[in-house]
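re: that chain from earlier
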Amino acid sequence: MNMIAKWVVCLAFALFAVSAMATPVDTYEFKSADNQKRALSLSHQLRCPQCQNQNLVDSNSPVAQDLRLEVYKMVDNGKSEQEIIDFMTSRYGDFVLYNPKLDPKTYILWLGPFGLLIFGLFIGYIFVRKQRIQPTEAGSLSAEQQAELDALLNKNKAK
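^ sequence. v structure.
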């Protein structure tokens, strides 16, 4: 009997631990399945302002939950995708977009990696070219050094 009681207590603690770790699930009734797909697609495209490395769907922060609900409501109210994105960027800036627009503020973001690649290739080209142009000094010995080398080699052959 004592063994059964221990098992029941252990099982109760295990169930309590599992339920304590569970996260709440957003439940929102959409007017149509198309609206649900659009809302989820938009939520995948928008970044959580608090987490900064997760989209709205993946984030569990309260800010992301509020923004998901806002996106869901706007989609159900008939707002277009561009209107929702404009609303989010006006409120949180271009940072909420995983793929920011190409405009003068983001040129360095979009073109910077290509510029660094070109700069690195140019530096590599110059380095390799400089190595080829420089003569190697290993093959050129003065007459005095050559005579000393010959004397050492002849000395080793005589032994």
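The chain has two domains: 2-101, 102-134.
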